[in-house]
Write a structure and sequence with these properties.
By secondary structure, this protein is an alpha/beta fold. It is built from nine helices and twelve strands. The chain is globular, with a radius of gyration of 19 Å. The two termini are 36 Å apart. Bound molecules: 2'-monophosphoadenosine-5'-diphosphate (ATR). The site of 2'-monophosphoadenosine-5'-diphosphate has 15 residues, from helix 5.
């Protein structure tokens, strides 16, 4: 039987997951399809039932359904419990299990492309929204020396830090306070949407605060190189873009669905071709 997969979100037309997973299935020689599914909030329960009825092996779940979908699943993997959100659903003969591959996908990419070992590092996370939440939880598994979350709204940074205080040394602060601490940081990670297409000139922080040799990482992959990364590179920083996170969150999902190793280079190249190598 063909392998049925898809991605549920609202909106969904912009999603690059169908093209990436389509290429991956072809590369693996698997007969099947990965389709975009436009699902509105009120339809989420029915959509999960449809996954069972139609025999989908699994789906990705994206904005705005990552939290709401949890109540329609039979089981939650530890990764989903830790983050409080699901981006991947696996259907085992009608039993639906929710996973979160965003955070572990990001960390796999950071380690593969920028910092082999995160233990003992000092990490500054910019932003305290849903994206930051997944990242912080996965970063703490790597035993960094410290994680500082800086956010425009300082209270939100403190709240997020509080959620994970039993998992490691995590604190929250206001974005305005980073000038005092950034010198002691090894890695800075932008989890905000500042700098994303169609506003590629914006930056979440003053780039003059970056120092030579530090790692500057951005979750944004459109553009492939954000202005923050360009400015970091000019200042002698090691830069790391968001494409790898997108590829590896998809790779983990595909591995859960198929049991096979995902063709990550094919997946990466498909997205680069699709973005035209620039801001497209
Ligand atoms: P996501 O799920 O993508 O993380 P979110 O939950 O809406 O989205 O969070 C967006 C994050 O980007 C927040 O940390 C937000 O800061 P506030 O909590 O102060 O709103 C941050 N953010 C968005 N636009 C920003 C801007 N122009 N300057 C600084 N931070 C911004």
């Amino acid at each position: 039987m063909d392998l049925l997969l898809g991605v549920m979100g609202d909106p969904i037309v912009q999603s690059k997951s169908p093209v990436m997973h389509g290429a991956a299935l072809r590369a693996l020689g698997i007969q099947g399809a990965y389709v975009p599914l436009h699902i509105r909030g009120g339809q989420l329960g029915e959509a999960m039932q449809a996954v069972r009825t139609l025999g989908f092996r699994g789906v990705n779940v994206t904005i705005p359904h990552k939290v709401a979908v949890m109540e329609y699943l039979d089981k939650l993997d530890e990764s989903a419990v830790a983050v409080g959100a699901v981006n991947t659903v696996v259907n085992d003969n009608g039993v639906l299990t929710g996973y979160n591959t965003d955070g572990i996908g990001y960390v796999r990419s950071l380690k593969a492309e920028a910092v082999g070992d995160l233990s003992g590092t000092r990490i500054l996370v910019l932003g305290a929204g849903g994206a930051a939440r997944g990242i912080v939880s996965a970063l703490l598994l790597e035993k960094p020396e410290a994680v500082v979350i800086a956010n425009r709204t300082a209270d939100k940074a403190g709240e997020l830090a509080g959620l994970y205080s039993s998992k490691g040394n995590v604190t929250g602060t206001g974005m305005a306070d980073i000038s005092g601490i950034i010198r002691s940081m090894d890695i800075v990670i932008n989890t905000t949407s500042v700098g994303m297409f169609p506003y590629p000139d914006e930056m979440p922080m003053d780039p003059d605060l970056l120092h030579e040799g530090m790692v500057v990482s951005d979750l944004i992959y459109n553009p492939l190189e954000t202005r923050l990364l360009t400015e970091g590179r000019k200042r002698g920083c090691i830069i790391h873009g968001g494409l790898g996170m997108f590829v590896y969150q998809g790779a983990y999902a595909l591995e859960y669905w198929t049991g096979q190793t995902a063709p990550t280079e094919v997946m990466r190249q498909t997205i680069i071709d699709c973005l035209g190598g620039s801001a497209g």
